[in-house]
Amino acid sequence: MKGRLPIVLSATAVVIAALGSTSLGTAAGHAVAQTVTKAKAAAGLARPTVVPRRGRRGPRGFRGPRGPAGPAGPQGVAGIAGLTAAAGPASYQCGYPGGSCQVASSTATCPSGSYVVGGGFVGSTVEDITVYAARVTTTSYGVIAVNWSSISGTIQAQAICASGSGIQPSRITEGSLDQMQRTLRAMREGVAGR
User: pTM higher than 0.85, yes or no?
Assistant: First the structure.
């Protein structure tokens, strides 16, 4: 048996190398490895390895005492102290086909010490189409709308204002009052020319 073992091992290695990339070859490799280990043990060439079985897990220990409180963290950054809503005037819009009076604007201005963080508008007719809605300064929000309804209506801007030492108005940018005025003039001229 000792003389044949190298030949058996060599033949086994060739089969495993040829089939090693397939699942059949992998299964064959495991089976052959176990057979070779048993053959070596029977021939007295190696001792079989004995893996001790792990015992059952013991009971969980008692929970230890709570540790001392950690040090206080650093002071947080200043944030928003309050939010308020501000409404602009309800600007009149004539009905279609009224011409340039169909176009109106409204600007909502935040109370002193607060800054615009958002906004919206209220149109009184279903066909009141908003063509401009943006922050025009750090403290105001503007809206321009065209009333395509046959009845007159109004447009009203609404600003969401925040106050607090953590607000940095220099970082609030978007539209501008000049841009809003240019848009208003262009829309009035466009509607009047229809």
Answer: no
